[in-house]
Amino acid sequence: MTSLPPEDRSPADRLLVPAGLLTVLVGALPVGIELWARTGFAEVRDALWLAGVLGFAVAFLLGTRGGGTPFRCLLFVVLQTVLALGTAVAKPWEFAGILLVVAAAQYGTLLKLPHSLLVCVGQTAALTAILVAHGRDPARATIGMSMLFMFQVFALLTANVAARESEGRIALAEANAELVEAQGRLALASREAERLRIARDLHDVLGHRLTGLTLALETSRHLLARGETAPAAEQVERASTAARALLADVRQVVSSLREDDDGPVDLAPALRALAARFEGLQV
């Protein structure tokens, strides 16, 4: 009975909505059958009572369908309280107390506990005043409404616990998702830092060998141009040695890269792990 989307509610929280509707139906059905058998809702008070019950059910469905703002849900619950008291004005029966219990459960999810308790006191006092105004004995009405108040407290505490559990579960899932994301970013940053280090090593290790190789080849070219074949052959041999050392260094760096590489990120399992924390979300 909270403003959370249906997919974010816990199983216990989702059961509160059909439980509330069933409570209204079971409470109203015997009274409605009795009124139909008496007058067929031909009297104005009977028709007003029926309209109040139906209006309460509609307001209950609109206020508990989820996804709305807390203020919007609270407006629908206030409307339910007004309609419940309206049924008592039309027919001064204790049936209105059943509707107030359903409303109290919703107040428990939308208001802070002290505020919801004050609301229950107010609507219980209002129903007591209506019954006394219609001729009920004040002492008996007060005793009966005190019992009704305790039912309201039980309902709002139960709903409050369910709502706090849903909110805590969502907060925990969000925190876990952020932690997984942070771990992924840290691993990526670590790999990038390692690749940067290897790039620097390549530059430091291979740079001087490439310089020596270039100089040896350039020298041999000039010697050959002057016809000095023996010194040119010596420079070519020196270049060949530098090339072999360069190749060995390249192989060593590549081998280090292969050992340190964790491979590409397997995106599908990572997404499924995140999605598993949110009910109703499929990837």
Structural write-up:
- With 283 residues, the protein is an all-alpha fold.
- It is built from eight helices and no strands.
- Helix content is 83%, strand content 0%.
- The two termini are 28 Å apart.
- α4 packs antiparallel against α5.
Can you lay out the helices and strands and say which pair or pack?
Elements: H1 11-38, H2 44-64, H3 70-90, H4 95-110, H5 113-133, H6 138-225, H7 229-260, H8 267-275
Helix pairs in contact: 1-2, 1-4, 2-3, 3-4, 3-5, 4-5, 4-6, 5-6, 6-7
Keywords:
rod-shaped, 8 helices, 83% helix, 283 residues, mainly alpha
Q: First CA to last CA: what distance? A: 28 Å
- Strand tally is 0
SSE string, helix = H, strand = E? HHHHHHHH
The radius of gyration over CA amounts to 39 Å
Main pleated sheet: none
Strand content: under 5%
Percent of residues in helices comes to: over 70%
Overall shape: it is rod-shaped
Number of helices: 8
What structural class do the secondary elements suggest?
Answer: mainly alpha
Q: Unreliable segments (pLDDT under 50, ≥5 consecutive)?
A: none
What is the average per-residue confidence, as pLDDT, rounded to a whole number? 80
